[in-house]
Amino acid sequence: EGLQQLDEATAKSLAQFKGNELYLNGLHHLDEATAKSLAQFKGNLYLNGVQQLDETTAKVLAQWKGEDLKLNGVQQLDEATAKALAQWKGRNLKLNGVQQLDETTAKALAQWKGEDLYLNGVQQLDEATAKALAQWQGLNLLLNGMEQIDETVATALAQFQGKVLFLSGLKQIDEAIAKALSQIKGKIYATEKILEQINKFR
């Protein structure tokens, strides 16, 4: 796990590291000053141990110029924090620890301009939240933690205009859901059984 605590001075030193990746997965807490120092690091940041993220710290992290931000330990995300994170200009945002999303948070997150959005911890979405998330204009939306969806959520998610919608966790779908998902512009990544049902309507 490595370092479990990090002060501002140590963070400043670590930020000078010339390698491509900085693994700080043992770190459970990240305050604004420490985040500001780490944001100077030029490589990829692994912060999978951080469990809580507030708006202020997210704003500072959003200044970081790396491409791959891993925050898989964060379990809850509110609208203000999502809005702050959405300002980050990197490519891959990994938030696989987040289990629930509401409509306003999804709308805020959908403003992010990156390529791959990982939300594999989300187990269910309501129609309004799915609709908000589908407005995200990136390439790959990963929702592999969802085991079931209803027709309204499927219809909402099918509005996603990106390259691939990942739904590999889906266990079963009926004809109406398959038909709704078949309307998506891009590809769907799911099990062979689920894809067979969807492809009947494509």
Describe the protein's architecture and organization.
The chain is an alpha/beta fold. The protein is built from nine helices and eight strands. It has helices spanning 8-15, 32-38, 55-61, 79-85, 103-109, 127-133, 151-157, 175-181, 192-199, and strands spanning 21-23, 44-46, 68-70, 92-94, 116-118, 140-142, 164-166, 187-189. It has an eight-stranded parallel beta sheet with strand order 1-2-3-4-5-6-7-8, with no helix packed on it. The chain is elongated. The mean pLDDT is 94.
Bulk shape: elongated
Structural class: alpha/beta
Q: Helicity range of the residues?
A: 25-40%
Topology pattern, helix = H, strand = E: HEHEHEHEHEHEHEHEH
Task: Give the topology.
Elements: H1 8-15, E1 21-23, H2 32-38, E2 44-46, H3 55-61, E3 68-70, H4 79-85, E4 92-94, H5 103-109, E5 116-118, H6 127-133, E6 140-142, H7 151-157, E7 164-166, H8 175-181, E8 187-189, H9 192-199
Parallel strand pairs: 1-2, 2-3, 3-4, 4-5, 5-6, 6-7, 7-8
Essential attributes:
single chain; 202 residues; alpha/beta; eight-stranded parallel sheet; elongated
